[in-house]
Amino acid sequence: MTPLPVSIAAAVASFLLLVVVFELIRSRRLRERYALLWLLTGVVLLSLSLWRDGLNTIAGWFGVQTYPPAILGATGALFILVVLLHYSTVISRLSDQNTILAQRLALLEQELREGNAA
Amino acid sequence: MAELAAAPVAPAEHQVLAQLAELKRLAIVPAFNEEVSVGRVIDEIRAFDPGFEIAVVDDGSTDRTAGVADDRGAHVIRLPFNLGIGGAMQTGYRYAFEHGYDVAVQVDGDGQHDPSQLARILKPVLDGEADLVVGSRFSGGGPYRSTVARRVGIRIFAGVVSAVVRQRVTDTTSGFRAVNRKGIALFAADYPHDYPEVEATVMCVKHKLRLREVPVEMRERSGGRSSITALRSIYYMTKVLLAIFVGLFRRYAVPVEEEHHR
């Protein structure tokens, strides 16, 4: 069985994550689009922390008998991986767009210079 | 609420056109790969009122959308890559704001909006009764065919938005809209991302702009594909509902009456 202090600590931590993400969206420092994965992470971790029987059951499925909270850690790690992978795709798209912007700007400047010279 | 019933079925079009004649007016046409339909949309807007200037915002199309629009003498704003409908629309509103337009209408480049019905959405703006007018498919207009999932989504949004803005709203996703200078200024400064219509409606009311819905009939899309596919709709619903929910906890500035014209 999961020790109660572990459940409490995990629940508080995931709740804090949700609060921080909410506040970041509200103050417009985080777009909804990029907040969804974090919110999902917070909700799943919070549910697993509060639903202690469920955590034991899931630990059983994976043959984790000694220490069920390991599942909490594993779930957290999995979500962090997904978020990171998602950000890698976002960064790739941003850098593609950045290239296009730089090219458009350079072409515009060239056009302006030659237009002024003429 | 009672406003819907009071909306004129056949507004006096000549009166609207007379009122329009004194105003600097812009039709914003967002288009993403709409070479098949964008030309007709431009022609139809001019058929309604030749005095409308038309800004086609080409949202990174890979077809001849910009070329077709350019051939017809529209102002073509080509985005260097696809920004999504939100970013494209805001580009149009920035253009409208910076060039001092008094009224702006949104007409989709895919041909689903019928420019001959522009008088309906323009009338409340011109009469000074509303700052944003949305043409609704569901408030007494003609039949509209759609999938069950879409209908459910539309119903949910209508319920949520009506509750938030404390006014009956039937069609939150309609992009057939008209705004006055106040609306142009607000949308130029701040416009939602991704799927903007629902949030823009809410935002408008939060900023104390007057919203009005009028019935319109829409057509089947004549070109392109809907930007909302089955897989994306869950993301779409979640994202928009989250944005509305978080928006409840934001403070909104009431925009100043009138700013400089350029």
Taken in chain order, the helices and strands of chain A follow as HHHH
Radius of gyration of chain B: 17 Å
Number of helices of chain A: 4
In N-to-C order, the SSE pattern of chain B is HHEHEHEHEHEHEHHEH
| CATH C-level class of chain B | Alpha Beta
Return the average pLDDT of chain A rounded to an integer.
Answer: 94
Q: Which structural class is indicated by helix and strand composition of chain A?
A: mainly alpha
Tell me the strand percentage band of chain A: under 5%
Jot down its keywords.
heterodimer; A: 118 residues; mainly alpha; B: 262 residues; alpha/beta; Spore Coat Polysaccharide Biosynthesis Protein SpsA, Chain A; 7-stranded mixed beta sheet; 10 helices; 42% helix; 13% strand; globular; disordered N terminus
Short description:
The complex is a heterodimer of chains A (118) and B (262). Chain A has 118 residues and is mostly helical.
What does this structure look like?
The complex is a heterodimer of chains A (about 120) and B (about 260). Chain A is an all-alpha fold. Chain A has one domain (about 5-115). Helix content of chain A is about 85%, strand content about 0%. Chain A is built from 4 helices and no strands. The mean pLDDT of chain A is about 95. The model of chain B is unreliable at about 1-10 (pLDDT under 50). Chain B has a 7-stranded mixed sheet with strand order 3-2-1-4-6-5-7, with helices on both faces. Chain B contains 10 helices and 7 strands. Chain B has one domain (about 1-245): Spore Coat Polysaccharide Biosynthesis Protein SpsA, Chain A (Alpha-Beta Complex), CATH 3.90.550.10. In chain B, β1, α3 (about 40-50) and β2 form a beta-alpha-beta unit. In chain B, α7 runs parallel beside α9 (about 195-205) and α9 runs parallel beside α10 (about 230-245). Chain B is α/β, with parallel strands linked by helices and about 260 residues long. The interface of A and B includes residues 36, 96 and 101 of A.
